[in-house]
Write a structure and sequence with these properties.
mainly alpha, flat
């Protein structure tokens, strides 16, 4: 593994469409997210043009990374529960607290 990969692992990379998915999900707009990555990105971009663009500073980036971690953790949890045949996800069934805390 080279120096670049050590400092910037590909597993931690996200795209512009991922950014829009994290933000739209956080903003409780699943109807945009469910349309697909590019359509969601277009909607997210149009909303930013109307509402104003966020300042891309350290605080914005840290919050975005937190949203990405939450989104990916919950997605993984949902996948695990579906494999286990659990249709309704609740913390006792799938150990949500342990999973998000990294203890399972």
């Amino acid at each position: 593994m080279g120096e670049w990969e050590r400092h910037l692992p590909l597993a931690q990379k996200f795209t512009k469409t991922d950014l829009a998915k994290f933000e739209s999900t956080w903003d409780e707009e699943p109807h945009f997210v469910s349309r697909g990555p590019e359509k969601n990105f277009t909607e997210w971009t149009l909303a930013r043009e109307d509402e104003g663009w966020p300042v891309a500073d350290e605080t914005f980036f840290r919050r975005l990374v937190a949203k990405a971690i939450l989104f990916n953790s919950i997605s993984a949890l949902r996948t695990d529960c579906q494999r286990a045949g659990i249709s309704r996800v609740s913390p006792p069934d799938c150990h949500l607290h342990d999973r998000l805390a990294g203890t399972s």
